[in-house]
Amino acid sequence: MPDAQRLRIETAQRIAADIAENFSDWASARARALDELKSELGLIPAGAVPSSSEIESAVRAHYDLFSHAEHAELLKEKRLFALSLLQAFENVDIFLTGAVLNGCAHADSIIVLDVFTDDVKAFEAALIDHGIDFEPVESPHSAMPDPLESLGALIYKRGSPTAEAVRFDLRPCSDRNRNPFRRKPDAYQQPWEAQGRISAQQLRQVLF
User: Most exposed among 107, 112, 197, 200, judged by the fewest C-beta atoms under 10 Å?
Assistant: First the structure.
């Protein structure tokens, strides 16, 4: 195996371990790993920096190796809660996306929901109607254009003292056909987990 390829794989594994074990955010874990690599080698060889998809796959591989059953249960719980939210807003063009969908989520991962609307105030009113307290939050830079608004909420599970952090990314309807997170599934994914976003109907079909 070429040295650059080996380094890329090892670096992806290092980043994945930081994310999975320390609940680090992706940008910080990636920056730390690259700083360590530069410190060890003096410079980072061309081709040694893993792509986002390679890091994602390394995270899923880490969970599969070290906590397969526990992580599967965690994903199921988060996805079921996400489904309850999607169904609560059945009249809205809303989808689950991010780590909870693609299988990279840890216990502290935020449930990210894409909402396609040209009327931000109308969706804010819908949140209020559902008794959901929210506040504007910063949405991480991604391959998607910046949302019109990102709204964060801490939503308690029915009959439970525990809550999930949820981010609603409100996007213009014109972005509806953009899906840069759709990828070919790796060895640790089902095809639906790699499709970038999923509706309530689709999620219900795969969970039950």
Answer: 107
